[in-house]
Write a structure and sequence with these properties.
By secondary structure, the chain is mainly β. Helix content is 6%, strand content 55%.
């Protein structure tokens, strides 16, 4: 029976990959008159499977929902994902995901399997436009066994569009032009996409421009330095030289010209660093070459290999003094996995073995000279891992995993640092009754100190000196989790679907790396502070929480519920941790009418007040937001023309999310029209 279950899983994956998964619209059947329900394929667990068959805490946003929301930034993308917040403030370029209270370099970010390792003092980490994306997956909780250093909070996987996903199963060539407007910042959008495919080769090309001025909050006050001028593009080609072989080349580019505080999540007013305003040009380029080998008759070979490069450069000039800073990070990497399927007696095995290797080279300059606060430094990381999914009985699955990482780091005038780390995980899934499954898991993660943590130097703010600390220890996390999942089809309609998950977790993190500032005031003369700044392992922390997500989809309507409660404790000094999002609840629903040509819906989001903060940290008030949206597909061909209309923050609420130092925008009226040819 376990072999039958493995065969069913393999068939479901193949159906999802080929676009023929259950949910296709049977011609002429009036029960399917509204919309078809696609199958979402999840790759974040390194074992691709339809979303209904994934028991790990993975949340997903697809292209349809992002189009409906007219997603323009990371906050729009992450809506309705439980346990996922946004830090970094209101400026799109500075937004960062916060997963279960952890952010920054404690979250791994990947675009088309390419790691995005950039991190430099509140300057942002994600540089892409949401319109290029096909799907976004967020794996919540420590995941170093699968993804190595940095996955203490979780992993965000961005997948860009390709010709097959853009064209669908029936067309061989086509294109789309899109134009949009949003009242906040008078934002304008123009995008053009063209795609075509033959028997063996498919191509997709996109160019996009998005431009906006400063935003305003619900009081009508300007949120300073929130304007952007973004140009981006994507070129993606796929070659199928023979059955079972697939080669994909992707070239992505992004540029944002803007005026912004040097500390991009500050208000941009007041004394000190928050008053340093720069003209910044942000450039990001990512190249990936992915080879997939899926022989139909092999149980030992199912290969997925990606060779990638990523280059980030920030060029910023102070508006008051003309001082010029250049910040660069270049990454070259290889990500390789192979899946094996075999039996040992009555037990079936689905085994993933993998190799990951990447090299980072960072460089900082100030007026053409080396900048010690972003030191010239290098690192090389190699990891090997194995995860075995054991199908023991029809009801019980166990998945142990183990990973070894070796990394070396060095900088000019410093000795090379070489260390290694082991990470492990084990999970068990037990089927209580058909459709109801109980999940339990233990996972470990670590974050090796970044190059800046180790080697930062120089003088900052008068005569405060930065000191390197090559003796930093890696941060380590140990997570325990329980989950109850439910999935069903055909409850009220042959094609409706329900999936739900309740998660409870506790994540213990040791050796938090924090920046320590020791100021000294002179005994005589003007009050120019001195002292030193360095990074140190200071705290142990415990993060606990509960998450709930419910998704019900029907050809005529949909309902989504998302809720999260998070707590964080400083176990070294006592008291709460900073950076923990407020408790929140979101409800979203909509209906499809006129045979799916019109979709009407809305969303209500409530965030409770957050006063569980350290003594010197800001609290945040509660707030409730209401959004409405409408999608119109006129004409006989529903896919030809599409108009999306929405109003975010309908009541023009003035509010500040807890993880931001400034207010979020007030009412935003937006419209976007697309025409396919």
């Amino acid at each position: 029976m376990t072999r039958q279950r493995l065969c069913m899983l393999t068939a479901a994956i193949a159906a999802a990959l080929s676009g023929t998964a259950h949910g296709a619209d049977p011609a002429g059947d009036p029960l399917y008159a509204s919309v078809t329900l696609p199958t979402l394929l999840i790759e974040s667990t390194r074992m691709p499977a339809p979303v209904e068959q994934v028991n790990a805490p993975v949340a997903v946003r697809d292209r349809e929902s992002m189009d409906r929301d007219q997603a323009a930034n990371l906050a729009d993308i992450m809506r309705m994902l439980p346990g996922v917040g946004i830090g970094g403030g209101t400026r799109a370029i500075a937004m960062e995901p916060v997963i279960r209270g952890l952010s920054g370099e404690r979250v791994v970010i990947r675009v088309d399997n390419a790691r995005q390792n950039f991190g430099a003092g509140h300057k942002g980490r994600i540089f892409l436009d949401p319109l290029l994306l096909e799907q976004v997956e967020v794996l919540r909780g420590p995941a170093s066994t699968l993804y190595g250093s940095g996955a203490l909070g979780g992993v965000v996987n961005f997948r860009t569009q390709d010709a097959d996903s853009f064209l669908g199963p029936d067309a061989d060539a086509g294109g789309r032009v899109s134009a949009g407007y949003q009242s906040q910042g008078d934002q304008s959008l123009f995008s053009a996409t063209a795609a075509g495919r033959g028997e063996r080769l498919s191509l997709l090309a996109n160019v996009l421009k998005r431009e906006q001025s400063d935003l305003k909050d619900g009081n009508g006050d300007t949120i300073l330095y929130t304007g952007d001028e973004i140009v981006s593009g994507l070129l993606k080609g796929t070659l199928t030289p023979a059955p079972g072989h697939r080669l994909t080349l992707s070239l992505q580019a992004f540029r944002d010209d803007h005026e912004i505080p040097s500390n991009a999540n500050s208000t941009g007013t007041g004394a000190g660093s928050t008053a340093i305003i720069v003209d910044r040009r942000t450039d990001n380029r990512t190249q990936t070459l992915r080879y997939q080998l899926h022989p139909d008759d092999s149980r030992w070979l199912d290969l997925d290999a990606t060779l990638y490069g990523n280059q980030v450069e920030l060029d910023e000039t102070r508006t008051d003094t003309g001082r010029n800073d250049v910040t660069q990070l270049n990454t070259l990497g290889l990500d390789l996995t192979n899946t094996l399927r075999f039996e040992t007696g009555p037990v079936d095995h689905l085994v993933v073995v993998g190799l990951e290797h990447y090299r980072d080279r960072q460089k900082g300059e100030r007026d053409g000279e080396s900048r010690p606060m972003y030191p010239d430094a290098r690192q090389a990381v190699t990891g090997i891992f194995l995860v075995d999914r054991l199908l023991i009985t029809d009801r019980l699955e166990i998945a142990p995993g183990l990973r070894y990482d070796h990394f070396s780091k060095d900088a000019d005038d410093h000795d090379r640092l070489t260390e290694s780390e082991w990470s492990g995980q084990i999970s068990a899934t037990y089927t209580l009754t058909p459709g109801w499954e109980l999940f339990a898991g233990y996972s470990e993660a670590f974050r090796a100190p970044s190059l800046t943590n180790l080697y930062v130097g120089g003088i900052h703010f008068g005569n405060n000196r930065f000191e390197p600390n090559p003796d930093l220890r890696p941060e380590k996390a140990r997570n325990k989790e329980l989950g109850l999942t439910h999935h069903a089809r055909g409850l009220f309609h042959p094609e409706d679907r329900l999936r739900a998950r309740l998660s409870v977790y506790q994540n213990d993190v040791e050796d938090f790396i924090d920046q320590i500032v020791e100021l000294e005031m002179p005994a005589f003369g003007p009050p120019i502070p001195g002292g030193r700044t360095y990074f140190e392992n200071v705290n142990d922390a415990r993060l606990r929480g509960q998450e709930l997500e419910i998704h019900y989809t029907h050809p005529d309507h949909f309902i989504t519920v998302s809720a999260a409660r998070q707590r964080g404790d400083n176990r070294t000094e006592g008291g709460p941790l900073s950076g923990i999002p407020a408790d929140n609840l979101a409800l979203e629903g909509g209906v499809h009418v006129m045979q799916g040509r019109l979709t009407l819906g809305g969303r209500v989001t409530h965030a409770w007040s957050q006063d569980r903060v350290p003594d010197d940290a800001d609290t945040a008030d509660s707030y409730t937001l209401t959004d409405v949206f409408l999608t119109l597909r006129p004409g006989a061909d529903r896919d030809r023309m599409r108009v999306d209309f929405g109003i975010d923050n309908l009541t023009d609420k003035t509010y500040r999310p807890h993880l931001s130092s400034m207010n979020d925008p007030g009412r935003n009226v937006k419209i976007q029209a697309s025409y396919r040819f």
